[in-house]
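INFO batch 0412 | record 1 of 1 | parsing
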Amino acid sequence: MKKIAVYPGSFDPITNGHVDIIKRGLGVFDELIVLIAHNPNKKSLFSVEERMEMIREVIRDYENVRVDSFDGLLVEYVKVAGANVILRGLRALSDFEYEFQLALINRRLNRDVETVFLMTGYKWFYTSSTIINEAASLGGSVKGLVPEIVNQKLLERYSTKRGIV
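INFO prediction complete | emitting C-alpha cells
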C-alpha cells in the first residue's frame, strides 16, 4: 500500500523552505499532495490558481507530487484523497505550539489521520511566506529564498503595485 501524505498550507508564495519539506517528505512517503488550503483569515497576494501554477512549475520534475486545493476540513480532504498522513513543516518553537493544536483537533476529528512533523532545513529556519511578501513589497530582494519563478512573479506583482513598470 502506498504511503500518501498531504502537505497543506497557503503557499502564498511557495518558498525554498516549503520545497525543502517537499523533497525531504518524498524520502518518507511514496506520494505527496501539496494542498493549497483556504484560510479565510489570510488575505492572499496570489490567487489559488496562480499559486497552483507556481507550485506545479517548481515540482515539475517530481512525478510523485501533485498539487490540489480544497476549501473545507483538512481531515475530510485527507480521507477523500486516500491518504492518512498530514505532513507539516516546523521552523521555530512558536510554530510547534500552533501546529500541535492543529494536530490534536485533526486527530479528534479523524482518529485515522496522523500528523508528521519535519523540521525545515537550517537555511530556511527564518523564512516564511509572510516575511518574503513583506520584504518583496518594500523592494527587497528575496532571490535565493524562493524558487526563481516565484521571485519573478513577486517582482512583477510588486513592481505593478508600486507603479514601477
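INFO post-check: Residues 100 and 115 are 9 Å apart (CA to CA).
INFO record closed
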